[in-house]
Amino acid sequence: MRYPALLAFARNEAGTVLVFWALALGVILGFVALSFDLGRASITRSELQSFADSVALAAAGELDGNDDALDRAAAAANLIVDSQSFGNTDRALSGEVSFTLTYYATLPAEDTTAVSDDTTDPEDAAFVRVQVTPTVVESTYGAAFAALTGRENRNFDLGASAVAGLSIYACDITPMMFCLPGPDYKAEENIGDMILM
Fold this sequence. Notes:
Blueprint lengths: L3 H8 L4 H45 L8 H10 L2 E4 L6 E4 L4 E6 L22 E11 L4 H8 L6 E10 L32
Antiparallel strand pairs: 1-2, 3-4, 4-5
Helix pairs in contact: 2-3
């Protein structure tokens, strides 16, 4: 017994492009959705790195070798306030809950070598490393991608770090030259007087 309607349906080619477009549209929408997750992760990483850079520069500006250098560096670092817009929750980035400071006497010659010469002596501390407390950015649309690839963790664990040091190139240097105030000015009559520049 033959089923002519079934054979006719199997041979009919009308609508085959629709199947292709349905599959392609699913893939395209998947990549668009995944780009939202990657964008959120990228923005969060940029926010954390900007905060780490600012804290490192503020702390490094106080590493002058004086006895209170580490205290001043920590105080300067605590003055930096920023915000994180994405992640599990919006949060303010400030204070010791948002970062840790580690001080170093020297840095290795190569960037690929780990920094290991840490110190707690304010006279030796020449560099500071800021490690921002990591945050999690949930991958909302990545759940489907994680299911397809077999990944268990579909979230992004993000953090940032920065290293900075203080280099003083010129300090307490007298001017090389300046012009006298006028033709009637006599230097020997103004010994010890300040000149407004």
